[in-house]
Amino acid sequence: MAIDDTSRYADILTYVGTDTNGRQLEGLELRPVPQTSGFFYYTPTDNDRLDLLANEFYHDPRKFWRICDASDQLDPFDVIAPNIPILLPENT
Question: Which of 21, 27, 29, 64 could bridge across to 54 with cysteines, CB 3.0–4.6 Å?
């Protein structure tokens, strides 16, 4: 399984499991969500999306997961809502 070095899963261990048809499948262990200290609060507008915010604040749209990690929402689509401030962690 090839994972990009910049991925949030780059350091996560893999495992091989067997499905009900006897096929071996490779997967990733669960990724622990790191403690996130806030950098500042941002109030999204109707036009904001996670990837656009990540590109604006981290210069990389693939870092949208940093914003997700700072949220208590389980679904990435629920992380931002217009006019409800969100925590943007520092870029590490």
Answer: 64
Return d(Cα 1, Cα 27) in angstroms, integer. 8
Q: Are 85 and 41 in contact (CB under 8 A)?
A: yes
Please write the tens of the pLDDT for every residue from 58-89: 999 999 989 998 988 878 888 999 999 999 99
Give the predicted TM-score (pTM) of the model: 0.72
What are the domain boundaries of the chain? Answer: 1-32, 34-89
Q: State the Cα–Cα distance between residues 7 and 3, nearest whole angstrom.
A: 7
CATH 3.10.350 corresponds to the domain 34-89: yes
Nearest to 87 by CA among 42, 54, 23, 29: 42
Which of 54, 51, 26 is CA-nearest to residue 12? 26
